[in-house]
Q: What sequence folds into this?
């Protein structure tokens, strides 16, 4: 009976080591990120039908080589208080720059408004924030 208990203990220990090794292999790595750029094609809309669509574009690059299972989290924040949910992105080892878009329907008839957007990214090692230029919208 003592031998069986020892053998089953060894089997359980080896099984736990195998599971721990598999979990370690799947561990997400946090790496370096950047540079980050945030752009908008047009910053002034004069006497237009509103709302207008303004598309903010963030471009994020990574130093190479980056580790396998490299992940980062990002979200957008607008000056009207809207914040998107955090998005998790797993990056392939050969991944080049990534592009993200935040389309925004903005402006109210007969009013002038200004909007801005910001892109927040966290890789565990780096925390980057890039703010857009201000967009001015004057509606008919």
A:
């Amino acid at each position: 009976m003592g031998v069986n208990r020892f053998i089953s203990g060894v089997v359980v220990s080896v099984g736990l080591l195998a599971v721990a090794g598999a979990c370690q292999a799947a561990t997400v790595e946090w790496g370096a990120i950047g540079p980050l750029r945030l752009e908008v094609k047009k910053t002034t809309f004069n006497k237009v039908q509103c709302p207008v669509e303004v598309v903010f574009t963030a471009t994020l690059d990574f130093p190479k080589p980056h580790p396998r299972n490299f992940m980062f989290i990002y979200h957008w924040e607008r000056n009207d208080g809207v914040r998107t949910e955090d998005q998790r992105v797993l990056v392939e080892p050969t991944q080049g720059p990534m592009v993200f878009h935040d389309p925004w329907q903005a402006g109210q008839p007969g009013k002038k408004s200004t909007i801005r957007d910001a892109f927040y990214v966290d890789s565990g090692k780096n925390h980057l924030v890039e703010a857009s230029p201000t967009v001015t919208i004057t509606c008919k």
Remarks:
- Residues 1-28 form one domain.
- Residues 2-25 form the longest helix (24 residues).
